[in-house]
Amino acid sequence: MTVEPKMSLREELAAIAAEARAQIERAADLKALKSVEVEFLGRKGGKITNTLRGLGQLPAEERPAVGKLVNEVRDELEAVLKTKEGALREAERQEKLRTERVDVTLPGVAFDSGHLHPVTRTLREIKQIFIGLGFEVVDGPEVETEYYNFEGLNIPADHAARDMWDSFYLGGDLLLRSHTSPVQVRVMEKQQPPVRVIVPGKCFRRDAVDATHHFQFHQVEGLLVDEGISFAHLKGLLGEFARQMFGKQRKSRFVPEYFPFTEPSAGMMIDCFACEGSGCRICKQSGWIEILGSGMVHPAVLENVGYDTQKYTGLAFGMGVERIAMLRHGIDDIRLFYENDLRFLRQF
Ligand SMILES: [Zn+2]
Predict the structure, then answer these.
(1) How far does residue 121's CA lie from ligand 1's centre (Å)?
(2) Number of folded domains in the chain?
(3) Rounded to whole angstroms, how far apart are CA atoms 303 and 241?
């Protein structure tokens, strides 16, 4: 606003004050308000401050009254400014609260949680069944000596059966165990019968990797030694396992097999749970599936640990956990278990 030169200082002051009030009222934010403050009340060049310079042209008797008026106008404008500033700050705070508001009732972001590997789940199921049948779960070392892996199990150094387990040797007489059977010997060395254990764990063989072979896999070994244990116990026990694992209707049969540490030895077959015996891809059209190896513990194995073979007999069995999992889920390639491909793992 242009101040007319002929206005009196009082009129000029009133006009400036009115304009200042209007601009303060219009200020939309704190930044705009600050520039209004500088324009009117600034120590250098503020419009109110400038009016004090005009005091010198006034008659001496008017100066105190006009000076007082200038101060009053300045105080009043400062008060108006302060009120406006408070209102603007509150408005900004409300706006911030509005834009940053969090709806705590919205559902959260779910983390992608994993689940147990199909091999682990199968292993746990096998363990549960045998625990229910009165077996104890025992563990053993994955690095074994030749004695426990072979000799203690009736496989002497020159025995042709060693070729069945092409092993990883670690130097000296240490090797990665090629089966969980060595734990049989370790358990029997520490206790007298009755022995009733299963041994789940990893095994290692220098096999070429293909759809049905891997250099590392899981086995569950089982051993039962007591007075009067016969092949009837073996059939009864493993038949019950098969029914719990593969379904109540499962029939089983035993076919001759060879293992150095059992005599007689038998492969256990069940009728195919996928086709009920009529022939399909899983049973290779035969209607039967071999699920484990078993037999009566060879007396030489019992004698190695000092058991009285006139008094005690035993049964033993061993199964591949991957094989059981593959059968149950219709998986045709063992390598899928170890590739960590989530497209595969999420199916179980
Ligand atoms: Zn079948």
Answers:
(1) 23
(2) 2
(3) 29
Centre of ligand 1 to C-alpha 327, Å, is 10
Range of the domain at 316: 118-345
Q: Which residue has the higher pLDDT, 32 or 56?
A: 32
User: Quick one: which H or E segment has residue 203?
Assistant: strand 195-204
Asked whether residue 216 is assigned to any structural domain, the reply reads yes
Q: Round to whole Å and give the CA distance between 161 and 179.
A: 13
CA of 24 from ligand 1 middle (Å) equals 90
The whole-model pTM stands at 0.67
CA dist 76 and 317 (Å) reads 101
Residue 4, domain member (yes or no): no
How many angstroms does the Cα of residue 330 sit away from the middle of ligand 1? Answer: 10
**239 and 269 part of one domain:** yes
Residues 6+ apart with CB under 8 A from 303: 309
In b/e form, how buried is each residue of 311-345, taking b as 16+ CB within 10 angstroms? ebbbbbbbbbbbbbbbbbeebeebebbeeeeeeeb
Mean pLDDT of the chain: 88
Nearest Cα to Cα of residue 202 among 155, 290, 143: 143
Same domain, 151 and 52: no
